[in-house]
Design a protein that fits this description.
- The chain has 210 residues and is α+β, with helices and mostly antiparallel strands.
- The chain contains six helices and 15 strands.
- The chain has one domain: Deoxyuridine 5'-Triphosphate Nucleotidohydrolase, Chain A (Distorted Sandwich), CATH 2.70.40.
- It is 19% helix and 30% strand.
- The radius of gyration is 18 Å and the shape is globular.
- It starts with a strand and ends with a helix.
Amino acid sequence: MITVNYVNDKDLSNTLIRESKFVDSSGYPYTACPCWVHKTDRTFIVTSPIDYTFMVGGELDSNILQYDRKDLELDNPVLHLDASHFLFWTHDPDVWLEAIDHPMTSLVNNLIVVSGWVQLSTWPVANGLGFIVVDKTKPVVIKKGDPLMRVTFHSPDLNSKVQLKRIVDDGEIMDTYHTKRDEAVEDGTWKDRLFTKGKESKCPFARIIY
């Protein structure tokens, strides 16, 4: 079993939900498929902590959305939802975090979250909520509780179960993360650490420093 620690930076009521438990799928034939069960039991849903609706070209709340003006002119505009973030880290070796879009967002919300992955054992990471707008002639509608993205964890043994451990943070952990991340970005060392297995350490942030 691998253990992944996490904190929430803003809305403590917002939590992660195992995909296999997110929707009652009883009665559906795919629930009998061991491949589906194996994957969804190791994947977690990130839901929206807020209600928010906007149109590209309309008034955008800078407290909720981050964007560059030029990115709004793309065929599929790109923005970032500055809502609650989860910070993840692990003491287990060679664990990858993969952020994946959720299949319902293009239909329900008119957005698709940008996917990616990172070597979590080397680089503690806060999940990003960057997204593209599917149809900029229509509104983006986000309701509290809507699934926005999925997060899954890959270890050398893909049969390993995943345990999420929520850590109570008074702000010190997030502040340390942002400080060390900014230092690594400034000195240019951060890209090498995104995909390279790092040194084992009891301190999750030591992997950023060393």
